[in-house]
Amino acid sequence: MMKINKKSLKQNLTGYLFIMPQLLLFLIFMVYPIFEGIRLSLYKIDYKTETFVGLQNYITLFKDPVFTQATINTIIFVVCIVALTVVFALFVASAVFDKDARYVSFIRGSYYIPVMVSMVVMSMIWSFLLNPANGLIPYLARQAGLPTVNFLGNRSLVKPVIIFITFTTNVGQAIILYIAAMIGVPKEIFEAAEVDGANRLEVIFKILIPLVRPTTIYITIINIIAVLKIFVVIQLLTGGGPNNASTTLMYYLYNNAFKYNRLGVASAVGVIMFIITLILSVPQLRAMFRGQEQ
Amino acid sequence: MLRKRLVALLMVSILMLTLVVGCGQKAENKPDAEGAKDTGKEKVEISLWLTPQWKGVFEANEEGADYDSFFKYAAKRFSEEYEDYDVTVDVQVIAGDQRDELLNVNLNGGTPPDIFYESVFAMGDYAHRGALVPLNDIVDDTAKKDIAQNFWDVVTFGDDIYFYPFSHMPGTLVYNADMFRAAGLDEYIGGENEIKTWSLEEFEKILNTLKTKLPKDKYTNAYPMALFALNNQGDTWNLAYLRMFGNKFFDEDGNIILNDEKGVKAVKWLKKIYDAGLTNPGAESVSSNDCNAMFQNQQLAISFTNSVLFNNLKADMESGKVAKFDARLANIPSESGEPLTFTYVTGSCVFNTNDETRMKVSKDFVKFFSSDPELVKASKNGVPVRTSVAEEFKSEKPLFEAYDKNSKYLFNFTGNVPGYSELRQVLYPELQALYTGEKTPEQVVKDYQTKGNEVIQNAKKNSVIYNK
Predict the structure, then answer these.
(1) Do both B200 and B303 map to the same domain?
(2) B153 and B56 fall within a common domain
(3) pLDDT tens across A93-109, in order?
(4) pTM for this model (two decimals)
(5) How many CB atoms lie within 10 A of CB B14?
(6) pLDDT tens column, A149-207
(7) Tell me, which fold does domain A51-293 have in CATH?
(8) How far apart (Å, rounded) are the C-alpha atoms in residues B446 and B237?
(9) A13, A25, A45, A47, best to mutate vs chain B, most B CBs in 10 Å
């Protein structure tokens, strides 16, 4: 047994050497910070000194109502944005994938433009549009004599607004991936379905969606991870307001680390976010690997 | 096969070497610093950060005037005149709302700036945290005589002076007298160089008249008064409003005492004018910057200002960047009739970088531009802390006298408490909850007091000045 392992190691040495630079970078810039973050979450950090406080930072966190609020907000954002992105992207992709190539390109292009625009620019434009005092939309509404609502300052409206904005910038990527996956589905299957007399809906639900499942899993994981870290929109558009109604975990972490200078508490938030991401990703990764084995 | 593997091995080694060399590059560059043989002096590079203050070296209408002009000019003169080292000063302007983020990141990373020029109230925490070095040794008797004691009190933490005061910026309200006239409020307009004081009843009458009588065709989309609570920017005005009904805010031990009848009354008043549409809408998601822009666009009749902002506005009107209108100053009114006013003392502090040479040069530079007879004249852009400079520009700047008269109404808005930066983060979420109707005024003062005092207690425990 030992012999075989040694032999295979020798055989694969070149391979290992090739991945060495990347592995080194990964260890230095990813793995080390994760462990450092876990360590820091157990310390109280002042400008010059570090004091071990055990789980005190976590206790502080769980006692803070803003942290609870931020966790709930983040979960709402993840669920809504990911679901919306997957459903809408599936809808658009399945509607256009077999149409004329130029038409498909046009649709792809139009949905992809917001993905290319920086999130900062997008947030600023939305802020120009929605600012309750001098924004364009409230201004037009007032001119037209319509009742005005403060989209960014209303507790029940601010989350849908952020979900919508993030969704519009996210969905292009998903549509591109879906169209590519759907174009890759063998033509014979559709022809066979046509012979069997299946209608369009049946083709979509019984053939397309099951066959692009790996893409769905990939899009879901990528989007969950991206939305968990949602920050720029919050920072630039609402500042977490009104009264923390749109604060997310990432924004809360940022505030603690850089505004309140509580690095220990911020690290604890980071550790909790890491665990949440891990838990959410495991079943999906498993499904993906199972799919590959088949 | 073997050759192939050899080639592969070689390539990997080259890759790794490149990496190592890439990382090592910086270290090799280091000895360069002493390569300044031509001047015969050792080269020292220091950094100076500031938040936007006044534009230009001395005047905002100079060509190419910007926020860093003064310090670049001062640095040029300093490096010409300084004898000990060959000094280069790197000047950077930092956005006010990102100051704490940038400083915290750089402090924790061990790369704080050498000098920071800013309002003292925003930087006091860094003295409490032990990040600044005392400046006692660069303050001489001439400076002590020329700058009034109340300014030294503001910059002294414990026994030591941590900031070299340069100028101060009294905070007031600003109003658009043209809009007042259009609404038939001529009798409430003060003199051009006066800081007008209204009683609270008069103030409410002004707001209500502006709301109903302001001609809609001339001033579209305009509101009587600025109100904002998006973030901590401009929160000193909000703090002043909370004192309008006589609440003292801090007790003698530096604890918040807003939760009483007077405090509740003030918060109720804010909610009342907001609900009555006497302010811009959406205060919970409008920033002070938005309000300032709206005032410049004549969409607000009454807004907040300080002496520097007011000067910049006038300069922008002169240069044509902003359409001209008649802007004048007024006090924040109060129930008792005695108005409320405050001032931001601005000055420089030196960070503890553990590099003796840089700290010495930084201190010398601070002393240089804070006491050089030519350079201190730039403090006229705010209000000079030096009596000699104030006297010199008295005739040119008639407002100096008005500010001086107003100084008897000054209140100390920070209460010199530790943790003030974090305390600032507590107020605006509560005000947001007030304006959105999520909390009652009673709840707001109660929650603010509880959370605020918690912050102060924690900061006291960690303050190097309290625990000396």
Answers:
(1) yes
(2) yes
(3) 999 988 888 999 999 99
(4) 0.77
(5) 10
(6) 888 888 888 999 999 999 998 899 999 999 999 999 998 998 999 899 888 888 889 99
(7) MetI-like fold (1.10.3720)
(8) 20
(9) A47
